[in-house]
Design a protein that fits this description.
single chain, 468 residues, alpha/beta, five-stranded parallel sheet, two-stranded antiparallel sheet, 11 strands, flat
Length: 468
């Protein structure tokens, strides 16, 4: 069992590849005849699909540290990898059908693609359950608990001690804590100063040392590292970043061989995530422009011209990504007025036309922004863009206001679907909107974007009290 536990990640790789190829075989046998010639033709594509899965899993690192990572993290990474894989497989599928779109077998090919993808998703969940069951059973029947000692006295050392003692950070057993400060009453595991650490290490079987900074001299760290190597003990150095990032949010990345910490994770700074989001923006905006705006735009344009004098579109400079101004497009919903670039719309605003009130209530006035998305000024989902005057005003009053400009602005956003849409009467209203935008920046995922789009559509049909 101990050997199986060590090979757990490789077992998962093998099970996933088995699930992938089994789904392809079952789907092929269901919708096509088992013809030797046809099978030979699809073998190269099967190799491409297998390689694609291996590539995507390396990007999302779904098999790394599999023995100790919690199950929620495992499933989250698996879902992200599967969504990206589905997008990649669809491209392979289109490549296969590019010369065969008009043939009678196209329908069977579409069924094959959909069925094999869904089946793989189901089998992927099953393999996760199998591997997690093996891990749970293995922990019961093997001595998989790792004995650790913690060196240092700071926020990181206390957090580690609480985490390991509560058994939330994996099967770790804290044997002792060493530091040169005064012992605290609740420190039952305190065994002495840092000078006492090496004798303890020699006399006991220790799997890992967690040395927390600051507070430990360079000489002590070097001695501990050398002694850990001699005793086949892994040495971990833990910086106390809480002093610089009191909120507890920290992201660590490598630039060459230099670890660099930042105050927040930004998933869209990763090229794969950014490219995926941009491709989705292009396809979604093209769909809306071709199938909706192509006929709806002339209708609305005529109605606007009939109901009030002035242009069909309202163009306004707003703050974009990196605070770069861009012209945001909307259907004109107000009478032409001198305060359009200064004042927000308020409830019962006499500048809004009757048609404009309907468009604002149903968000139809925002539809031209799909052209902004296609051009690249905006995204489907992101923080709503503000007027330049408001950006300057709120940047001086609200902490982290400018952080939202790390992203492209969106047609809809997390703040809008959580009740923070419309007029901001107070600084507190805007601060809550900024907090929601920063949360989206730090927690972006494709599934979150899908949720926001769904809630936006749902709110359009349900109606929103703040849409005026």
């Amino acid at each position: 069992m101990q050997r199986i536990m060590r090979l757990l990640s490789w077992i998962n790789v093998a099970l996933d590849l088995l699930a992938l190829n089994l789904s392809l075989i079952i789907a092929y046998g269901t919708f096509f005849r088992m013809d030797t010639v046809l099978i030979r033709q699809i073998v190269p594509y099967a190799f491409i699909i297998n390689f694609l899965w291996l590539f995507i899993q390396s990007v999302f690192k779904i098999y790394d540290n599999y023995l100790y990572r919690n199950s929620i993290s495992i499933y989250r990474r698996t879902i992200n990898a599967f969504v990206s894989f589905g997008f990649g497989v669809s491209l392979v599928f289109l490549l296969v059908l590019q010369d065969d779109l008009s043939s009678s077998g196209t329908r069977s090919s579409i069924y094959f693609f959909c069925f094999s993808t869904v089946l793989f998703g189901v089998l992927l969940c099953i393999t996760r359950l199998v591997v997690l069951s093996i891990r749970k059973k293995g922990r019961k029947h093997t001595n998989s608990v790792r004995n650790v000692i913690i060196v240092g006295h700071n926020h990181s050392s206390r957090t580690l001690s609480d985490l390991f003692s509560g058994n939330h950070g994996g099967p770790y057993n804290v044997m002792a804590i060493f530091h040169d400060q005064d012992k605290e009453p609740e420190e039952r595991l305190y065994k002495g100063s840092t000078n006492d650490c090496i004798p303890f290490l020699k006399e006991n079987r220790v799997d890992e040392i967690f040395c927390t900074l600051p507070g430990i001299s360079k000489e002590h760290i070097n001695d501990l590292m050398h002694e850990a190597d001699r005793n086949l003990t892994r040495f971990r150095l833990v910086p106390d970043y809480y002093e610089y990032f009191p909120a507890g949010n920290v992201n660590i990345e490598m630039i060459d061989n230099i670890p660099v910490m930042s105050s927040r994770p930004e998933p869209l700074e990763h090229i794969v995530n950014a490219a995926f989001k941009r491709l989705f923006d292009i396809f979604f905006s093209l769909f809306v422009i071709v199938f909706i705006l192509s006929w709806l735009l002339p209708v609305i344009a005529v109605l606007i011209k009939i109901t009030s004098p002035g242009p069909v579109f309202f163009k306004q400079l707003r703050s974009g990504r990196d605070n770069q101004p861009f012209y945001c497009l909307k259907f004109r919903s107000m009478r032409v007025n001198a305060n359009a670039d200064k004042l927000q719309a308020v409830k019962n605003d006499n500048r809004i036309t009757p048609l404009g009130a309907f468009m604002r209530k149903t968000s139809l006035d925002e539809l031209p922004q799909f052209f902004n998305v296609l051009i690249g000024n905006m995204s489907i989902v992101g923080p709503r863009p503000h007027m330049l005057a408001h950006t300057e005003q709120y940047a001086a009053l609200i902490d982290k206001f400018m952080v939202r400009h790390f992203l492209k602005p969106g047609i809809t956003g997390w703040a809008q679907v959580t009740g923070l849409r419309g007029e901001t009467r107070t600084i507190e209203d805007m601060a809550r909107r900024v907090e929601a935008d920063v949360w989206y920046l730090e927690n972006w995922s494709f599934l979150l974007d899908m949720k926001i789009i769904f809630l936006t559509i749902w709110n359009i049909f349900r109606g929103e009290k703040n849409a005026y």
